[in-house]
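Hi everyone,

Forwarding the result from last night's run.
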Amino acid sequence: MTIITKGANTPVPAGLLRVAVCRRKAAGAPAVEVSALLLDAVGKVRGDADLVFHSQPVHPSGAVRHIGTGDSGEQLAQWLELDLPRVEPAVQRVLIAASCDDGTFGAVPGLAAQTVAPDGTIVVHYEVTDASTETAFVLGEFYRRDGQWKFRAVGQGYDTGLAGLATDFGIVVAEPRVSRGPVVNPGVTKVAEPPAGAIPAPAAAAAPTGPAGPAAPTAPITPAAPTAPITPAAQGSGGGRALGPFGPEFRPWSRSGRGSREIAARLPAGPVIVEAEHEGEGLFGIDVLDADKQPDRLVHNTVRSPYRGRSLAVAPEGCRLRLRVEAQGAWKVTVLPVSAARPIAPGETVSGSGPEVLRWDGPAGELRGWFDGGRNSQLFCVDALDPGHLTALHEGRLLFNEMGRVDKTVPLSRGPVFVTVKDGEGAWRLKALPIPVLTTTAAPADGVYQGRRDAVVTLVNPWPGRPALLEYDIRGAGRQAHTVTQLDEYGDSDGEWMNGTRHGRRGSHLLFARGQERCTLEIRGTSKWRLRVRPVEEAPLLKGPVEGTGSTLLRYQGPPTLLRLFRTTEEAGYLVAHAMNPPRGQSALVADTDTRRRPVVGPVWVDPEGLCCVRVQAGDGVGWRVEPVPLDEAPVIGGRVRRVAGKGFGVVRHTGPETEMLVTHDYGPLSNLIPLIELDENLFPVRRVARSLGHHRIPAGFLQVRGLGEWELERRG
């Protein structure tokens, strides 16, 4: 946290920020109203919409919002939200101002401005120490300087209230009624020269003045979540209790306490968000009660500590919303309008832990969800609700209903749609994307396709009817590994084809395995990518030992054989080999390894009518060595040999007739699993003859053992 004094400035993160204008609770202290003014290069607003305050809570750009009042028990705060990347280029400064209608700022104790990051970290704190007779105050300003955003502590007061302050920056203000804040004349903006006394444009960082700085501030008051834009028809009087586009609009209602008790809120009838925070141990639950004070709907239920979550409920007509809190320790309950739902922006990832209420306003698309499984592989349940069904919560469409770890993509209808995470007591992430628009792409003369960021690209086969070699270089965006998914002719996913963890950033792959004319790929999580289509004959030929790093496609010309695979580095990444036989496009697992440098052996299937390719699949930095092995090196069981043993993947030849064998395997938690695969004369897997320990009928011929630890086959007959 950075504490600054009047005149000083400091850089701030160029992202989503919340600004609290705080004051201590004190009997008789005047109320404070907070506003923001968006100024252009000459220090003026461009129109009345550039003033954001409680009666005009959202700027048309969505970059600045007034999101309500917080109460921590000892402090009060009014909150603004600034989405700095969305601030229009014409706006150079965002002023944070406050006004008193029934007193002066000299009577406001502990006046301060705090800028808070999304994770609750206080970025910068400025305390006003010299207020006296002012009725309006510019506490600070966010401004652009050399490609970044900074905050400057201004501390300039006005004796003419918010109306006088607004007039100085170009807004014509009508005479106030008995309401709080100015009444703005629609469409009338002053464009006169800047008056004397206006706040100057930002200068270079000034040296702090006065004492070393104020005492460390108290923890920030937890704000309401970002509110959605309110249409003009939704704005009204009556304390903000107007009808919004999705339900009633009202000031957030909050109660805090300890232990179990009933609480009641008098709210407009309709859908609401119930936000809960709990610090104690043990079970924490909140029920909505019916008219007979009986449980009607469970909105929160957890044993996690600490806990914070949001759920939907319905405030009844003609009576209070009654909630029963079952808890040990301290808790806080806040009821918010549904317009406070957390927005999902196209292409951005939202994350959380526990219940949440989100809103999607984009076109029809798809929603990808990740869930870490929580404790003991818990349930991840996500619903979608149309705005017209917010009072019938049971009519939601189920998007996710999975146990344990989740990495899945589901369809998402056109917005507005409310997406509710109902169960998910572990870390989760959601990313919404419009449906990709597929376009036909001409084959480049050099076979090179390249681009930046996520894309959908159609690769054209220069040799229709034949396979090709694909060389790729894909740079991931951030820490998350990239993914490459094949799409069919309708844009639907055919499943993940490659990813950065298992295939690495650079390597080669088999493309057009069935001789297709084209192949459409969706590339995600990238900053830059390059694909090159080459003749498959240019893949290296596997005739003897071959060493390499990362993923590589090799050609094999010869009879069915065995292949030995092992690591040559200490890198603990993914390493596996497949035999691929175009034009059928069939693939068979050759061998898989664990993190140790123990060699494993598997079968290379060869179709007499096709081309055989061996795909070594490895992560970045994983070194490997492969070499063909004669078939007669496979261990034999049959005749006088009644027992054969090994470790990891292997191939066994059974020379006797079909008979019963005892299969054993020892690999910790997977000791009961050991797939035993029958191979045909071309070493292609035919069927699974065993998958667990015990006695099994084993046919004659070659068998592939897909073990991870020590295994043994013993003939019983």
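Residues 176 and 631 are 95 Å apart (CA to CA).

Cheers,
N.
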